[in-house]
Specification:
The complex is a heterodimer of chains A (383) and B (413).
Chain A lengths: L7 H8 L3 E2 L7 H4 L1 E2 L11 E4 L5 E6 L7 E5 L3 H4 L4 H11 L6 H13 L5 H32 L11 H19 L3 H14 L10 H21 L3 H32 L2 H10 L1 H15 L2 H10 L5 H11 L5 H6 L2 H20 L11 H18 L2
Antiparallel strand pairs in A: 1-5, 2-3, 3-4, 4-5
Helix pairs in contact in A: 4-5, 5-6, 6-7, 6-8, 6-17, 8-11, 9-10, 9-13, 10-12, 10-14, 10-16, 13-14, 13-17
Chain B lengths: L10 H13 L2 H12 L8 H5 L2 H7 L7 H6 L6 E2 L11 E2 L2 H10 L4 H8 L9 H18 L15 H16 L1 H9 L7 H11 L4 H14 L3 H9 L3 H16 L10 H19 L6 H39 L5 H23 L3 H19 L10 H12 L1 H13 L1
Parallel strand pairs in B: 1-2
Organism (chain B): Siccirubricoccus soli
Protein name (chain B): DUF2336 domain-containing protein
Chain lengths: 383, 413
């Protein structure tokens, strides 16, 4: 966004030394975490921990051809002039002790809240923060309700007050704690921490990740309906999106089942958390890793006017989340077949459609504005 | 076609209306024109439009399609106001057009009269309809034009000799109307050589004046006028002289009225002009003297464009920023409006660079950034305009590096 607005061809030539032949990560860690950049050249970029503790920046090939670019994190300003918003993200994410979808989301939301992506994104970030607080309270009471229900106490009155629920839960915790040698305060603290840890998953209604899954399913249906009356390229994109979504959603079911099992025994969950929260946190992080990046695809589609959905499809295809190989080993044979289908479709799409086509056709400033609008929309998907 | 009476306004009223039209915003002007276009006979009301014609051309406002307008589209570039028109010139006085249309309306064969009915409700934006209806009406007009001036001609205020001269220009052009229109309509694409050559060849046998009218019209609509002039020059030695004259006229033409256009329209006009000037620069018909004139035209356009940028920056970014800074609280929509204005200005600045105004624009942008940075110092009212709001405008106008420097300066201040 300088006077020498970097055209994409120039950016591509600077990226050339960092090209990798294929982009099939083995693990989620290797795939990295999506960053909500607003600079057109950085859209869909990811961060991952590289060698010797240095982070890498991964960029999809914007021309839509196979492969990706892997740059040292420090090289970002040499390759393009990032927006102030992106520079703030670049500086702050580099300081994170651990790069996960959750830690990255916290940092990037702070940047958005400060207004660097415009007032709409700032409002969305503020609202997301408020919604997060409400959600944690809801999770806490949902855990209390589950604890009480699992203890086999008398059924709650139809409209039980929070105070009454809390009292009954305290009773359960006192009884169970006496047997296990766990004080009430410690148990309540554990429950509060669990409510925070389960913020995005559940229990209780309105959890964010199940909501995101529903949106992904809806997206595949919408794209399929859009592509049905169009050409081969559009139908190929719809098939690619469906294959990718199905893979993620199958993995989601695999990951969600053990989490549900954890929630089926809240007292057991408290004890496990007391003993060591790390395994539970790791388990809860998996769906976040799995669904990372989809909110950008959803926002691209939602914000594209009907006449420009073909362009949106091209951008989405370039940044569609590639499922790492670790999912293949974790999933059944059926999903493995889907992984192969996804790879085939991705290759087909990239070979068949728009390879080497100039990716940025609009004005840089207008694209930044568009990406800022995407930012506001995407924040809304996770609140 | 129904015939409406001339607009009944007094002269002072018309003058006020003309003034209002010249000061109206782009959209309002389009509305005023649409109202006037509803009149088949505008009479004195034409003076309302006279002042704003260059702006209307730059805005590309679609006009109501009637017989007169359709008939003279293939000659659009050579229509003059009665005051500017000179006898013997390869041009048409505007006052003759409605009279000729009235004369023809009474004499067209029945098939063509049906085509006139089909013009109702259409506009000049409907290129295909013009091609289809023109294919009927242009040759029909050529066939129906009486050899001697009919009594109605007196309404034009022109003499019988003028009628013969004008009829001699119009007849061959109408006969070649479809070929000419095909090239004119494809003007934004060049036009392609084959279409331009076909149009020029179709009218060239009628002699230099008719060729001149068509060439000027084609070049006026063309993205690449130099290429069109070059094609004309290749037809024959007389045509070469016509082409050089057309180039001279183009080099002498005033730049688009940037000052009277909204920022986005001014940007479009500047980009189109830059492309046309670049094309003219590579035209082999331009010797060193004409190239110097071309540079002069470029400079003049760049200055006008830069002036528009400065006015836009003052009115649409600096002044609203000052106003918002003074406000107790600002709403997101107000901030977004200033950002939108800054984006539009950034587009105009880019277009101005294509006209060759790089270093001077750099200075303008730097000064603008300096002013906004000063405004942003000490900004900390909760609920009011924030430092980041101002810095974002600087980022839009001048890029992230300037914005980072401004942010540091504001926080220091």
């Amino acid at each position: 966004m300088t006077h020498s607005d970097a055209p994409s061809r120039e950016a591509l030539s600077r990226l050339a030394p960092f090209a990798t032949g294929h982009a099939k990560p083995v693990t989620f860690l290797e795939r990295g975490v999506t960053l909500p950049f607003t600079s057109p050249n950085l859209l869909g970029g990811r961060i991952r921990l590289g060698e010797r503790g240095q982070s890498d920046l991964i960029l999809a090939n914007p021309a839509g051809v196979e492969g990706a670019y892997v740059l040292p994190w420090s090289a970002l300003p040499d390759f393009c002039t990032p927006t102030l918003h992106d520079r703030a993200i670049w500086e702050r994410v580099a300081k994170l002790p651990k790069v996960t979808p959750r830690t990255v989301r916290e940092v990037t939301r702070t940047v958005a809240r400060e207004g660097y992506a415009g007032r709409n994104a700032a409002r969305a970030a503020q609202e997301a923060e408020r919604a997060g607080q409400r959600s944690r309270v809801m999770r806490f009471y949902a855990l209390l309700a589950a604890l009480v229900a699992q203890a086999g106490l008398a059924p709650a009155p139809a409209q039980e007050s929070a105070q009454s629920l809390e009292q009954r839960a305290r009773e359960v915790l006192r009884l169970r704690g006496r047997e296990a040698g766990l004080g009430l305060d410690a148990a309540l603290l554990a429950l509060q921490q669990l409510a925070e840890a389960f913020e995005f998953y559940g229990p209780g209604g309105g959890a964010l990740l199940p909501g995101l899954v529903a949106r992904i399913e809806e997206l595949t249906r919408e794209v399929a309906a859009w592509a049905a009356g169009l050409g081969e390229a559009e139908r190929a994109f719809a098939a690619l999106l469906r294959a990718s979504a199905e893979l993620s959603l199958t993995a989601w079911q695999e990951i969600a089942a053990p989490l549900e099992a954890l929630l089926a025994d809240v007292w057991g969950l408290i004890r496990r958390w007391q003993a060591d929260p790390a395994p539970i946190l790791n388990q809860l992080a998996r769906p976040e890793w799995l669904l990372d990046g989809w909110e950008l695809l959803l926002a691209l589609w939602a914000n594209a006017p009907p006449a420009r959905r073909g362009e949106a499809a091209r951008e989405m295809a370039a940044i569609i989340p590639v499922t790492p190989a670790e999912v293949e080993t974790a999933l059944a044979e059926k999903a493995r077949v889907r992984t192969e289908a996804q790879a085939d479709l991705l290759r087909f799409w990239r070979r068949k459609v728009h390879a080497h086509e100039d990716w940025v056709t609009g004005q840089q400033v207008a694209l930044v504005a568009r990406n800022e609008a995407l930012r506001a929309t995407a924040i809304g998907y996770l609140r | 076609m129904s015939s409406s009476p001339p607009l009944a306004c007094t002269l002072p009223q018309l003058r006020r209306l003309a003034q209002a039209a010249s000061e109206a915003e782009d959209a309002a002007l389009a509305q005023i024109v649409a109202v006037l276009d509803q009149l088949d006979r505008r009479g004195e009301a034409d003076m309302v439009l006279e002042k704003v014609r260059p702006r209307l051309r730059a805005l590309g406002v679609p006009r109501r399609l009637n017989l007169a307008r359709l008939l003279f589209l293939p000659m659009d570039g050579a229509i003059r106001s009665p005051k500017e028109w000179r006898r013997g010139e390869a041009a048409l006085p505007r006052s003759a057009l409605p009279v000729l249309a009235e004369i023809l309306l009474l004499r067209l064969e029945p098939g063509a009269a049906q085509a006139v009915q089909a013009l109702e409700g259409r506009s000049t934006a409907e290129l295909e309809a013009i091609a289809r209806l023109g294919a009927v009406l242009w040759p029909a007009a050529a066939a129906a034009l009486p050899p001697q001036p009919p009594p109605e001609w007196a309404e034009s205020g022109l003499g019988p000799a003028d009628y013969h001269a004008i009829a001699a220009l119009c007849t061959p052009i109408w006969q070649a109307g479809s070929a000419i229109w095909a090239a004119v309509a494809a003007g934004p694409l060049g036009p392609p050589d084959a279409l331009a050559r076909a149009a020029l060849l179709a009218v060239a046998p009628a002699g230099p004046p008719a060729l001149s009218i068509v060439l000027v019209t084609l070049m006026g609509a063309a993205a690449f006028p130099g290429a069109v002039a070059h094609l004309a020059a290749l037809l024959n030695p007389q045509a070469r002289a016509v082409a050089v004259q057309a180039l001279d006229a183009m080099l002498a033409a005033a730049p688009p009225p940037f000052a009277q256009l909204g920022v986005e329209r001014a940007t479009d006009a500047a980009l189109a002009l830059a492309r046309r000037l670049d094309n003219l620069q590579s035209c082999s018909l331009l010797g060193s003297d004409r190239l110097r004139r071309l540079e002069g035209a470029r400079r003049e356009a760049e200055e006008a464009c830069r002036e528009r940028y400065l006015v836009g920056a003052e009115q649409e970014v600096v002044a609203p920023t000052q106003r918002l800074l003074a406000a107790e609280a600002v709403c997101d929509e107000d901030v977004a409006a200033v950002e939108a204005a800054a984006r539009a200005l950034r587009g105009l600045e880019g277009a101005g660079r294509k006209l060759g105004g790089g270093p001077l624009l750099d200075r303008c942008v730097k000064e603008l950034v300096g002013r906004l940075t000063l405004l942003g110092r000490g900004t900390s009212r909760p609920g009011g305009l924030s430092v980041v709001d101002i810095v974002r405008n600087i980022e839009i106008l001048s890029g992230p590096q300037a914005a980072a420097a401004a942010l540091a300066a504001m926080r220091k201040g």
